[in-house]
Amino acid sequence: MTAAGEKDRVRAIYEKEAPKYDRGMRFYERFVLGDARRWACARATGDVLELAGGTGLNLGHYPSDVRLTGIEFSPAMLDVAKRRAAELGRAADLRLGDAEQLEFDDESFDTVVCTYSLCTIPDDRRAVGEAARVLRPGGRLVLAEHVRSPVRLIRAGQRLLEPLMVRFEADHLLREPLEHVRAEDLVVDELERARLGIVERLAAYKPAR
Fold it and tell me: What are phi and psi of 55, to 5 degrees?
């Protein structure tokens, strides 16, 4: 499948998922993922860009003084996020966008946040590169993701499930965002693993020139 075809497939999946996405995420966050979403948003400062913001589940966790911009690839998911922002009274510039091809200028943001989304972005390496590009020197990339477990038995289970998850949910279980962050020469200053190594919390800053 071409890159464009894979993007269309992912969008179609999440157009269908939008009405039930929150319910499913509540289950996974309660029993698997924990409170990493809150952890990530608490580290946002200044001009903030959220990648692949989905239905806006992060909106209630950001500090009140950040200036928030969010992009989402699925129109149906974005519609839910906009309704949530209105209900919360959260000022945010929420728009359609592609994390692999950000429309923003270089060095536009103080913080870039991405939670549980690099697993579904077709080219996660490119998305991390774009995040690094739009960060100002000294700015931080903050990630909360499910990743490949270092525990052999858990990792074997992930390998078995991966083909089905990718086919039906566009959800990759074996990715390692940390590799891409380091490839962009970002400096990791916070790194935590939890839940048998499945959940990773990562913050890294862009060095000044």
Answer: -90, 10
Q: In Å, what is the CA distance from 100 to each residue of 3, 7, 38, 45?
A: 11, 10, 24, 23
φ, ψ of residue 18 in degrees (nearest 5): -50, -45
Query: Does pTM surpass 0.70?
Result: yes
Q: Measuring CA to CA, how many Å separate 164 from each of 17, 36, 48, 113, 191? A: 16, 25, 34, 28, 29
Which residues, 6 or more positions from 195, have their beta carbon under 8 angstroms from its beta carbon? Answer: 32, 33, 34
| Rounded Cα gap, residues 14 and 77, in angstroms | 7
The sign of the dihedral angle between the CA atoms of 128, 30, 7, 53 is negative
List Cα–Cα distances, 173 to 106, 113, 120, 146, 177, in angstroms: 31, 20, 9, 7, 11
Give the ranges where 135-195 is alpha helix by DSSP (H).
152-169, 177-183
Provide the greatest CA pair distance for the chain: 45
Percent of the chain at pLDDT > 90 equals 89
**What 3-state class would DSSP assign to 106?**
coil
**Tens digit of each residue's pLDDT (9 = 90 or more) over 66-97:** 999 999 999 999 999 999 999 999 999 999 99
